[in-house]
């Protein structure tokens, strides 16, 4: 029995590891037809709050890779991202993921949110609002919303503009990359005030450092 299991394990395909140094070069060069990653996400993956371009530095390597694949195959729809990664091969995506995952996440930007808004955002993010069937963000995204492996990204320290944009996309049924529609169902229960509050609070929190 043991021999059979070992034989089966040896026959499984071995996934190629990402080469972070090569990924850094690809991030500056692009895929040959679109803009390089650094044009929107910055030299160090810090993103751009004004353009709602997310922080990708320090995210889980597997999550970044899966997201890039989703943009390529249309599971996740974003015309700009799809256009900029469509010519990358699978190994290129793995290398890019390895590069951005090893970068330190930036410190959160100073917040302009009021104390009341931050308090509401903290309650939603950490405790939820069960009377309205709203579980806390941390129940999936982990303690302090730092992320849980490749399935749930870290959202602490993410730009408020991006968090708001994505919650609205889930809410409006424009984002379909969750096969069980967990985020869509939660987002549809959020008011505009709650979206602004939870986005502001999460953006004010430090991201995990790898």
Automatic annotation (TrEMBL):
ATP-binding recorded as keyword: no
GO CC terms of this entry: periplasmic space
Organism: Venatoribacter cucullus
SUPFAM superfamilies registered for this protein in UniProt: Cytochrome c
Swiss-Prot/TrEMBL keywords: Electron transport, Heme, Iron, Metal-binding, Periplasm, Signal, Transport
Protein name: C-type cytochrome
Binding positions for heme c 1 per the UniProt entry: 37, 40-41, 81
PANTHER family (UniProt xref): CBB3-TYPE CYTOCHROME C OXIDASE SUBUNIT FIXP (PTHR33751), CYTOCHROME C4 (PTHR33751:SF9)
